[in-house]
């Protein structure tokens, strides 16, 4: 007997949904037969919601500042009123500042990055997870978009890497807690891609044997893993290889390999990001 489809007739919430990978996740949700899709973004996603609603799916746009816990609570209440709850949660939104740590502004760069990349996913998941646990009549999914930067230290992205390391640790811990307490209808997937060509990492260069992923390639891999309930998805394959080598080699030999052979440590040297 086939397992129930976790997307068909589901209520899906996506953060950072106005463009890029968030928009692609929204389009996949509609194509997969979701009952309703909530688009959360700090910018206006009304045009995308109107476009996707032509399919007959109930797609709604919410302007939300996910760096603000109170704004998350407000918007979550609106979603409960509008849709009745959430079955699939995609914590996609993220920001990056590519610079040496000492050039980061404490509030604008450090605090903002941790709030958007890490705390927002925690706050939002905490809003809906108890309801997901209570309703065991259908499968539920949580997809947390982390990064290869959360598995491997890299110069010029210390705060971003820190935010993604924290996200991975939290995401994996929640998965284990749910399994330990018997809530197996909820699957948590952590996605760790290398650089994706969304503009967020404009100027960055892929290390040796590590192509820069297109948004379509990245979302396809993450989506497939989420639907299957795969605990962790890493793309491309060199992300897992680098983790293995870093775990086996002493620090200084790994540094030499990463710097001189794989060119990991220089991959952010020409970074410009969206503003470049």
From TrEMBL:
Q: Does the keyword Oxidoreductase apply?
A: yes
Xref: Pfam families: adh_short
Tell me which residues make up the Ketoreductase domain: 10-189
Q: Where are the transmembrane segments?
A: none
Output the Gene3D superfamilies linked to this UniProt entry: NAD(P)-binding Rossmann-like Domain
Oxidoreductase as a keyword of this entry, yes or no, is: yes
Which of UniProt's keywords are assigned here?
A: Oxidoreductase
The family line of this record is: Belongs to the short-chain dehydrogenases/reductases (SDR) family.
Which PANTHER family does the record cross-reference, listed alphabetically? PKSB, RETINOL DEHYDROGENASE 10
Q: What is the protein's given name?
A: SDR family NAD(P)-dependent oxidoreductase
Organism expressing this protein natively: Microbacterium dauci
């Amino acid at each position: 007997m086939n397992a129930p489809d976790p997307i068909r007739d589901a209520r899906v919430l996506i953060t950072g949904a106005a463009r890029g990978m968030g928009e692609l996740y929204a389009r996949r949700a509609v194509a997969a037969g979701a009952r309703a899709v909530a688009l959360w973004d700090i910018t206006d996603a009304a045009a995308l919601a109107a476009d996707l609603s032509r399919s007959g799916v109930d797609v709604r746009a919410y302007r939300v500042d996910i760096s603000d816990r109170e704004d998350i609570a407000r918007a979550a209440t609106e979603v409960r009123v509008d849709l009745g709850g959430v079955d699939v949660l995609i914590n996609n939104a993220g920001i990056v500042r590519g610079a040496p740590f000492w050039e980061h502004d404490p509030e604008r760069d450090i605090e903002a990055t941790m709030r958007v990349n890490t705390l927002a996913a925690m706050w939002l998941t905490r809003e809906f997870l108890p309801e997901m646990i209570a309703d065991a009549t259908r499968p539920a999914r949580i997809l947390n978009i982390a990064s290869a930067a959360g598995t491997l230290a890299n110069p010029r992205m210390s705060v971003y890497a820190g935010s993604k390391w924290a996200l991975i640790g939290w995401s994996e811990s929640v998965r284990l807690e749910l399994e330990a307490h018997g809530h197996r209808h909820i699957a948590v997937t952590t996605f760790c891609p290398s650089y994706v060509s969304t503009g967020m990492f404009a100027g960055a260069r892929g290390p040796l044997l590590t192509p820069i992923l297109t948004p379509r390639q990245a979302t396809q891999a993450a989506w497939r893993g989420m639907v299957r309930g795969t605990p962790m998805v890493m793309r491309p394959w060199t992300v897992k290889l680098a983790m293995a080598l870093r775990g086996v080699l002493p620090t200084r030999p790994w540094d030499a390999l990463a710097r001189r052979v794989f060119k990991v440590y220089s991959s952010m040297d020409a970074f410009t990001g969206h503003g470049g």
